[in-house]
Design a protein that fits this description.
By secondary structure, the chain is α+β, with helices and mostly antiparallel strands. The chain has helices spanning about 10-20, 125-130, 160-170, 195-200, 245-260, 275-280, 305-320, and strands at about 25, 35, 45-50, 55-65, 70-75, 85-90, 90-95, 120, 140, 145-150, 155, 180-185, 205-215, 235, 265, 285-295, 305.
Length: about 325
């Protein structure tokens, strides 16, 4: 399922199909879903859980006379993650191409090309043939199919942040002790735009952001530079590039994990950001906590997570939810 920033409608339709009948919901003017799930009790505090629906991708900027598609990224994608990748645009398969190694100069062999030097090859022989299926402004996506491999690992595109959306759907379809709000946000990858709107609408006292975050547990990387590791459980941040997280909520997450024998880890680098950056300062402000899934090769066609981390994240969220109202 495809849904880059500004093109999340198919993801939204899928989510609505899953939560309809289990909660009240509305779609705001930007396209985010704001859901309200009634629990057994109506609390004094307003609690919101959020995740974003969009993924990184590409937008077509021009079509050349010989039928190639010029493009740029939507969201943060490194040049190295796109070379020779299969993509999908309007249901048509293509390949992101550049010069073959035999055609590169000595200098070019030691540098990554800029997006302006790349193109998408859909097998068209002319501008007219390409324009029969693609127009400037259309979105293109990694063709990164889901697959299992190794000892409990999963590979797919868009694991950031469809797993967060999945966990929210599960909670909405369950029985809750207290009323809660759930926001499926658009346009996180291009500036946290959806979250700025939904959090202003909900005005929550406490907000929990479900995310994926960069795991650098790779060969040759040691200590804090690994940031977080697959198999270590959910990642709870104390600070990132956009947010200083609520210290009491941070401590509560670790205390709850310990009491319930749930693996948990902290993010050992202050980097990146997520919807908490917009939620924290929206309206009258909100206390925020981020619970992230460790993810290798994030923002690529082959992001990798471990199933045990998904299970541990689910367990922590369920154990933590009622404690947020204390």
């Amino acid at each position: 399922m495809n849904g880059t920033s500004g093109d999340e409608s198919k993801v939204s339709e899928y989510i609505i199909g899953k939560i309809s009948g289990y909660c009240e919901y509305k779609v705001d003017p930007l396209g985010s879903i704001i859901a309200f799930k009634r629990g057994k009790k109506t609390p004094d505090k307003k609690v919101m859980i959020s995740a974003h629906m969009d993924e990184v991708g590409f937008i077509i900027t021009n079509i050349t006379d010989d039928g190639y598609l010029k493009f740029n990224s939507v969201g943060g994608i490194s040049y190295g993650a796109v070379l020779d990748r299969e993509i999908i645009v309007n249901g048509v398969k293509g390949v992101i191409g550049t010069k073959a190694v035999h055609q590169l100069s000595a200098d070019e062999k030691n540098t990554l090309p800029d997006f302006s030097e790349l193109y998408i090859d859909i097998g068209a022989a002319s501008r007219e043939e390409a324009e029969s299926v693609v127009s400037a402004g259309d979105f293109a996506y990694f063709a990164g199919d889901y697959s299992d491999f190794g000892n409990g690992f999963v590979k797919s595109k868009a694991l950031d942040d469809r797993i967060g959306c999945m966990l929210m759907i599960e909670i909405i379809r369950s029985e809750l002790e207290y009323d809660a709000y759930f926001c499926f946000n658009v346009q996180e990858e291009i500036g946290l735009r959806g979250a700025a709107c939904t959090s202003f609408c909900v005005q929550s006292d406490i907000s929990v952001v479900l995310e994926a975050t960069t795991a650098a547990d790779l060969c040759g990387i040691q200590g804090a530079d690994r940031c977080c590791v697959l198999g270590g459980g959910p990642v709870v941040s104390f600070m990132d590039g956009r947010t200083v997280y609520d210290r009491d909520l941070y401590n509560l997450a670790f205390e709850t994990a310990k009491k319930n024998n749930i693996n948990i880890q902290t993010k050992t680098l202050i980097a990146g950001g997520n919807d908490a950056g917009a939620i924290q300062s929206s309206g009258r402000g909100s206390r925020v906590l981020a619970i992230s899934l460790p993810c290798r090769y994030i923002h690529s066609a082959a992001s990798v997570v471990k199933k045990s981390d998904i299970d541990e994240t689910r367990a922590l969220l369920c154990a933590l939810l009622t404690k947020l109202y204390d």
